């Protein structure tokens, strides 16, 4: 069972922190769901994100998996806490092709300083979801880091 968020305004804080991520803006990712211990990010697939065979690049898949997991962890942290990735392991399951990718991050275990999360990434083509990646990572609570940001 996931513990309740330590910040009653966690959703607003997570959305504001995500909005400061220049890289997510650069690739066109959007935060679509924020709930205690869960986050979903959508990335429209476009030519600028393709690798040499026309599939969405694994780096884009990794980026949204990492970000969805990290922000899922942050939903349970205190109001001034930031989050940093300690490690992330990803299994690529199928080529990423379609209209968009969706990364659904969720907390598996939240500790005082380390949180373990997973992200399931699917590609959506014609309304059908195909699993393309599974990521598991460890995320560190950084007390005061979020408060230090503009």
Helix content: 10-25%
Low-pLDDT residue intervals, each spanning 5 or more residues: none
Number of domains: 1
Overall spatial form: globular
Overall mean pLDDT stands at 95
Strand line-up in the sheet with most strands: 1-2-4-5-6-3
CATH homologous superfamily heading: Hotdog Thioesterase
By helix and strand content, what is the structural category?
alpha+beta
What is the name of the CATH class? Alpha Beta
Can you put this structure into words, describing what you see?
The chain is of the alpha+beta class and 150 residues long. The chain has one domain (10-142): Hotdog Thioesterase (Thiol Ester Dehydrase, Chain A). It is 22% helix and 41% strand. The chain has a 6-stranded antiparallel beta sheet. A hairpin with a 2-residue loop joins β5 (114-125) and β6 (128-142). The mean pLDDT is 95.
């Amino acid at each position: 069972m996931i513990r309740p968020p330590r910040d009653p305004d966690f959703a607003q804080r997570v959305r504001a922190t995500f909005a400061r991520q220049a890289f997510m803006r650069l690739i066109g990712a959007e935060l679509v769901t924020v709930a205690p211990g869960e986050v979903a990010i959508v990335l429209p697939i476009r030519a600028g994100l393709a690798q040499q065979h026309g599939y969405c690049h694994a780096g884009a898949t990794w980026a949204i998996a990492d970000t969805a997991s990290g922000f899922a962890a942050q939903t349970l942290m205190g109001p001034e806490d930031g989050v940093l990735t300690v490690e992330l392991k990803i299994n690529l399951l199928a080529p990423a092709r379609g209209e968009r990718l969706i990364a659904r991050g969720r907390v598996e275990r939240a500790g005082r300083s380390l949180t373990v999360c997973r992200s399931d990434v699917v590609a959506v083509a014609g309304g059908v979801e195909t699993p393309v990646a599974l990521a598991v990572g460890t995320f560190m609570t950084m007390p005061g880091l979020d408060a230090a940001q503009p």
